[in-house]
Amino acid sequence: MTKVIGVRFRPAGKVYYFAPGDLNPEVGNKVIVETARGVEYGSVVMGIKEIEDDKVTQPLKSVIRIATKEDAEKEEKNRQKEKDAFEICLEKIKKHELEMKLIGAEYTFDNSKLLFYFTADGRIDFRELVKDLASVFRTRIELRQIGVRDETKIRGGIGICGRTLCCHAHLTEFAPVSIRMAKEQNLSLNPTKISGVCGRLMCCLTNEEETYEELNNRLPNIGDNVTTPEGLKGDVHSINVLRQLVKVIVILDNDEKEIREYKATELKFKPRHRRKNVQLSEEELAELKKLEEKNGESKLDEV
Known about the structure:
Blueprint: E1 2-8, E2 15-18, E3 30-35, E4 38-51, E5 63-66, H1 69-96, E6 101-107, E7 113-119, H2 127-137, E8 140-145, H3 148-155, H4 166-169, H5 179-184, H6 191-194, H7 209-216, E9 225-227, E10 233-240, E11 245-251, E12 257-263, H8 282-288
Parallel strand pairs: 7-8
Antiparallel strand pairs: 1-2, 1-4, 3-4, 3-5, 6-7, 9-10, 10-11, 11-12
Helix pairs in contact: 1-2
């Protein structure tokens, strides 16, 4: 077992482990730590805890010290310097006529490195830009290309639910989101309805996916043949997943058809298998393929 604390460097950012050493930092304390990209200023979000050795990336770096008032002032100055650096970089990008969108600038606590985050449609040759920036700031320059989800995480905003975007407020990592999740939840496959501010499938589709899978397993499929409590045979017309209600087209004695609604528990039907793959039409695939998020790691929180 290894004794660690959890430190975060940005709001809703990834939590990293550090060895507390002889210090006793508490949740909410600010600390100065050594990272792969230099000395950083972070917030303690997990107090001292022992975890299994195989869950720790070695070598585990130690906390240098609990941040002082002077450290907090320096961090605030760095935030102000980043605003100036952002404006200067914008001018340089325009000067070099590069097709890239600058998203943010970030100094390490010790000013040993200045990072610029940007998005672009393809690969960008920014070697001359880096040289230009290095001559201005007199420090190591790193340009990091990020995705649209990372861009939204940095900038923040309000979702269609009226609340702060999950990625900006509390999501530490992006989970893969698939079209199957939207289909499982009986959502409209209209891209404007199921895509977020970033233009990708909404992250919140993963929040209720497990519940919907469990509820759907208790229901028949649309078109399935079922037996009603009255002993009538019928075909499933539609279902209400959350209320567990099923509308069935039944044939009466006079050969007339009637739609009746039943609780799923009242019907007899063959249980359906858990849907692992949802079959979509070619039109649906063509329209939604660009929205589906592929597995991949964010480059935003690499320290």
